[in-house]
UniProtKB/TrEMBL annotation:
Keywords: Disulfide bond, Signal. This is Allergen BRSn20. Belongs to the Ole e I family. GO terms for cellular component: extracellular space. Residues 1-20 form the signal peptide. PROSITE patterns: OLEEI. Pfam families: Pollen_Ole_e_1 (PF01190). It comes from the Eukaryota. The lineage of its organism: Eukaryota, Viridiplantae, Streptophyta, Embryophyta, Tracheophyta.
Length: 158
């Protein structure tokens, strides 16, 4: 029995040491919804230097427990290190600021992305992918009418 307890103690200790020395990585993209349609299209542009943050809250008290910010690269992609397992938290990646004043309003429903940041979920990777998040352009591009036609279903197919 003592060997079994020692075995579980070693497993638990090795898991916590691995978590502390091996941060989690959250990756995602930030875009400008150039056609104001609520999703990515061929006219979508990705925003360099957009600011995002990961905010985690306690599942029980909903009090903030962890926050870290990041900035997108030249392709509108971000990579943010999370230094510890957040298995007891609810975490979201949230838009903070767009670098483009003509595309600065967060798109409703695409302004945050929920991420589950724990190693205790069967995943073998330390990389977690968040859904793309977007800001909405003040005025749609002139080419958007043509682009949006490709999404329409002819009446006879409905």
């Amino acid at each position: 029995m003592a060997r079994l307890v020692a075995f579980f103690a070693i497993c638990l200790l090795s898991t916590s040491i691995a978590s502390a020395s091996n941060p989690l990585l959250v990756e995602g993209k930030v875009y400008c919804d150039t056609c104001r349609c609520g999703f990515e299209t061929p006219a979508t542009t990705y925003l360099p230097d957009a600011k995002v943050k990961i905010e985690c809250k306690s599942r029980i008290t909903e009090e903030p427990t962890y926050t870290v910010e990041g900035v997108t690269n030249s392709q509108g992609e971000y990579s943010i290190l999370v230094k510890s397992d957040r298995g007891d938290d609810v975490c979201d990646v949230v838009l903070i600021k767009s670098p483009d004043p003509t595309c600065a309003k967060p798109s409703a429903g695409r302004d945050r992305s929920r991420v589950t940041l724990t190693r205790n979920n069967g995943m073998i990777s330390d990389v977690y992918f968040a859904n793309a998040m977007g800001f909405i352009r003040d005025e749609p591009l002139a080419s958007c009418d043509e682009i949006l036609r490709q999404y329409q279903v002819p009446d006879e197919q409905v």
